[in-house]
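Example 9 (inverse folding). The structure is encoded as follows.
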C-alpha cells in the first residue's frame, strides 16, 4: 500500500493495526448492473461489504468504518459519482478496468482493479 493510501485510510478513521493487517489481503469486487440499478460486493479476507443503489435515488451505504450513510449516486460523463460525508468517490468501468478515485480533503487515492 502506498503512503497516500495509508494516509487516506487513517483519515477515514481506521486504526493503524487494522490497516497494517489488511494491507496484504487482496480484495475481490463483484459488480452486478441491471439498467440503472447496481450491486457492489467487496470481499476482503473474511469481511464482505455489500452496497446496492439505483442511480439518482437515495440509498444507504456501509463505509469502511462500518458507518451507515445515506447518499445518492449520480452518473456524470459515464462515471459513478457519490459523496459520503467528506469522501467523494468517482468510479469508472472502462473495459477490463475498474478505476476508483477517492478524495478526502487534499488526499486523493486512486485504485485500479483488473477484471479476471
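The amino acid assigned to each position is listed next.
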Amino acid at each position: 500500500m502506498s503512503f497516500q493510501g495509508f494516509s487516506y485510510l487513517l483519515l477515514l478513521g481506521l486504526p493503524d493495526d487494522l490497516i497494517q493487517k489488511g494491507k496484504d489481503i487482496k480484495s475481490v469486487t463483484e459488480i452486478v448492473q441491471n439498467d440503472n440499478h447496481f450491486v457492489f460486493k467487496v470481499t476482503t479476507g473474511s469481511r464482505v461489504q455489500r452496497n446496492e443503489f439505483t442511480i439518482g435515488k437515495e440509498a444507504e451505504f456501509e463505509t469502511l468504518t462500518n458507518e451507515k450513510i445515506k447518499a445518492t449516486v449520480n452518473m456524470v460523463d459515464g462515471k459513478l459519482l457519490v459523496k459520503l460525508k467528506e469522501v467523494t468517490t468517482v468510479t469508472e468501468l472502462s473495459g477490463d478496468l475498474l478505476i476508483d478515485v477517492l478524495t478526502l480533503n487534499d488526499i486523493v487515492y486512486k485504485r485500479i482493479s483488473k477484471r479476471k
